Predict the 3D structure of the following.
Amino acid sequence: MALPKMARIQQRFEVPVLTDLPAAIHAELERINASAIIKPGETVAITAGSRGVANVATAVKATIDYLKALGAHPFVVPAMGSHGGATSEGQRSVLEHYGITEATVGAPVKATMDVVELGKTVDGLPVFFDRYAAEADHVIPLNRIKAHTDFNGSIESGVMKMMVIGLGKQQGANLYHRAFFQYGFEHVIRTVGGFILDSGKIAFGLGLIENAHEDTALAVAMPAAQLLQTERELLVEAKSLMGRLPFDELDLLIVDWTGKNISGTGMDTNVIGRMMQNFEPEPAKPAILRIFVRDLTEESDGNATGIGLADFTTTRLVDKIDRHSTYMNGITALGPQKSKIPFYYDTDREAIEVALDTIGLTEPEDARVIRIESTLRLTELDISEVLLEDAKLHSSLEVIGETKPLPFDAGGNLLPF
């Protein structure tokens, strides 16, 4: 089969970059007068999650350093729901992948799947909270604020969600995902999160925003009383800085890597235009006919949640799937449809040829194809020859490579991006 030729292009995103994250965090904590909230000798739990947040270990350490200077006793708690196989050891291992250990951040990491019940919401939902966090004098949720991969709202993925799903551990994450079916995503996050804020456990939140280059663009400290409204405002800004594909209609998208360190669904649904979420409409754009995913990141520890968003994959990826981790994540999130195994083939060439054989009357060599490293990395990408003329009309796109055949090795697999 004649395959399309490809050329490397570069997207230019005019976005802010935070060059000194520790200094920015310290300035924010000074701005909200954190020393008036946290006193010497008090214990403080700082959350850390399971997403590939840029510079997360740096942000956690900067917060710990500031608190220690106040005379407080900070420690880290994993706040990632059922991830890491829903075990304390697994969640501790996830944090190690992100460079968060006692040695690197200067404070203990206390991991448990045990929760306490803080009370019940107006809907009668119990509010579950990580036991170590509940025992601390204060809790500081620290997380990236971004568009969610399952729903759209004024509050999506960020500090509020980490308080509810992350600190709720497996028990809370499972219950609240069930409640989403009845009450809706945002309502549950807002009511359970609001209860936690009203409990007085939260000292303040720290929200990070990333730009399209996967760099930290902004760090904001949010006093508990202002956290909900501030996060709403930051979500609008985060969405404006998101990286996106340069074309809305494609025959095939080739994604080199999927994984939990890239997105909660392995691939960011806002980038690929597929959500597969119960009771939520599918995005109108981008419209991608076929998606081929080549491999699973090592940092995922076999959790292939979201692989069902693709149409085709490889045998090597399927062989890496840890059924327990993947199933636990899918069941907890009540989204088993997202983790169905696609058609899989022994080589990339086979998968690409089959994918291009299922796009209708368009000849494979004329197909609109994009290849990306992951949905987090959209600055450089390969586009098929038929897209080159359109690319030249985009002021934000620059063709930086010659038109060449897809680079397969002797085994029929694409060379590294």
